[in-house]
Amino acid sequence: MHFNTKTAALLLIDLQVGFCSPDGHTGRRLDVSGFKPVLNSAKRLAIAARAAGMPVIYTTMAFAPDYSNGGLTTSELRPNLKEENALRADQPDREIMPALDPQPEDIIVEKQRYSAMIKSPLPAILEEWKIEGVVVGGVTTSMCVESTVRDLAMMDYRVFVVPETCGDLKADFHDRAMQMFALAFGRVVPEADMISAIKAGSEEFPHQAR
């Protein structure tokens, strides 16, 4: 699978207060300290991408205050989100983690579905910028990252998932998702190799899954 910096974008999924901060919706209930290395990796990738002229796109799960745009996600699939006033667009949960130091030229895409390609501006942005390859990281690996990766691949984008830049609340969820990414949806590329490819401008990544 061919990677070309000139036609690629970096997509960082849901690295927001609601999921990654101990003060966010998830962090108030579960231990999210394991996401700190993910944030560090994401910041390094973003710095490399900007230096190479690649667009940096963040997504954030952000619902209307009355959850009118949540659909089945907030009414039936995850009704606890509405019950707990979680991930509202008018609350800190929506904010990208400050540690990532987003820059003015970066794009933040609000979404209300697990996949960033559903009911969001992202498909139009990728088309407008003539993007062909997407470098992906974010949380959680097995939910919003996986949903997005599958949809990107099925829409004929070349997908390059960086494992160090992805995180999940259970290691086996993360590992199984990575196995499927490598098997059928793109290339799983270690951070160091991905940064090298970004700096070089292009790279060929072979299919390695069996």
Q: In brief, what are we looking at here?
A:
By secondary structure, the chain is α/β, with parallel strands linked by helices.
List the helices and strands and how they pair.
Layout: E1 2-4, E2 8-13, H1 17-20, H2 36-51, E3 56-61, H3 71-77, H4 79-83, E4 107-111, H5 122-128, E5 133-139, H6 141-154, E6 158-167, H7 171-185, E7 187-188, H8 191-200, E8 202-204
Parallel strand pairs: 2-3, 2-5, 3-4, 5-6, 6-7
Antiparallel strand pairs: 1-8
Helix pairs in contact: 2-8, 6-7
Content of β-strand: 15-25%
What's the mean pLDDT score? Answer: 97
**Could you name the CATH class?**
Alpha Beta
Count of individual beta strands: 8
CATH topology: Rossmann fold
Q: What is the radius of gyration? A: 16 Å
Reported for the largest beta sheet, the result is: 6 strands, parallel
Taken from the alpha-carbon principal axes, the silhouette is globular
The CATH superfamily appears as: Isochorismatase-like
Percent of residues in helices: 25-40%
CATH architecture term: 3-Layer(aba) Sandwich
Q: How is the largest sheet built, in terms of strand order?
A: 4-3-2-5-6-7
Q: What is the number of domains?
A: 1
Low-pLDDT sequence parts:
none
Query: What is the SS-derived class?
Result: alpha/beta
Separation of the first and last Cα atoms? 16 Å
